[in-house]
């Protein structure tokens, strides 16, 4: 869970070190340009929305308990723990994010900067909106009876997943004959073009 207040960020139950300086959330629509065959723009067609993006800038100052580098390690651990191969979905709690209807995010990017002569630095965190994928599935057709029904049922299930109807799958499974075989490959074909 990610919890953000004016000056604090909590991610997976751990309060991030540092002071939040800026939170920026951007959202955009996707709009395609419609052109004719002569490449003339006829208009614009909305097609959906891009993922919302949230950027958080944190100032990391050394404390008696932690140096800048140790604070950065804490954030890095939350970004990618040891052994994690892909980002995890995080719950987001923030009034500004709630106004944008942004509740679940991926921790997309982390960046840090520090001047060599100073003891403090900044960390920039980027989060992208999580939108679950919609996967459409079909229910397999009716069930048969008898000993042959299990193989026929599995054939209809696999054909439904491939987008082939049960009737067409049955046609494919029957003997449909063979194309005429011509021994002399240079002989004229019996087919005629009109």
Q: How is this structure best described in words?
A:
This protein is of the alpha+beta class. It has helices at 68-79, 95-99, 149-162, 166-173; strands at residues 2-4, 9-11, 14-15, 19-26, 29-35, 41-49, 53-60, 89-93, 104-114, 121-129. The strands form two sheets. An eight-stranded mixed β-sheet has the order 3-2-1-8-9-10-7-4. Strand 5 (29-35) and strand 6 form a beta hairpin. The chain is elongated, with a radius of gyration of 30 Å. It contains four helices and ten strands; from the N terminus they run E-E-E-E-E-E-E-H-E-H-E-E-H-H.
Q: What order do the helices and strands follow?
A: EEEEEEEHEHEEHH
Q: Report the helical percentage.
A: 10-25%
Which strand order do you get reading across the main beta sheet?
3-2-1-8-9-10-7-4
User: What structural class do helix, strand and pairing data support?
Assistant: alpha+beta
Radius of gyration: 30 Å
Average pLDDT for all residues: 78
Question: What is the count of DSSP helices, taking H or I runs of 4+ residues?
Answer: 4
How far is the first residue's CA from the last residue's CA? Answer: 71 Å
Taking pLDDT < 50 over at least 5 consecutive residues as the criterion, the unreliable ranges are 144-161
Our estimate of the beta-strand percent is: 25-35%
List how many beta strands DSSP finds. 10
Q: Biggest sheet, in brief?
A: 8 strands, mixed
């Amino acid at each position: 869970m990610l919890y953000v207040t004016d000056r604090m960020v909590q991610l997976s139950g751990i309060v991030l070190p540092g002071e939040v300086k800026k939170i920026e959330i951007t959202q955009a629509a996707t709009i395609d340009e419609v052109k004719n065959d002569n490449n003339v723009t006829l208009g614009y067609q909305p097609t959906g929305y891009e993922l919302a993006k949230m950027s958080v800038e944190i100032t990391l100052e050394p404390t008696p308990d932690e140096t800048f580098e140790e604070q950065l390690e804490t954030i890095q651990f939350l970004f990618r723990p040891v052994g994690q191969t892909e980002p995890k979905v995080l719950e987001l709690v923030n009034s500004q994010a709630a106004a944008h209807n942004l509740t679940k995010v991926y921790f997309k990017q982390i960046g840090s900067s520090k001047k060599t002569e100073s003891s403090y630095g900044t960390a920039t965190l980027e989060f992208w909106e999580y939108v679950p994928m919609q996967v459409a599935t079909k229910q397999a057709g009716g069930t048969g009876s008898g000993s042959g029904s299990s193989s026929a049922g599995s054939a209809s299930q696999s054909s439904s997943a491939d987008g082939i109807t049960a009737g067409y799958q049955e046609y494919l499974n029957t003997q449909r004959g063979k194309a005429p075989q011509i021994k002399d490959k240079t002989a004229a074909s019996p087919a005629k073009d009109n």
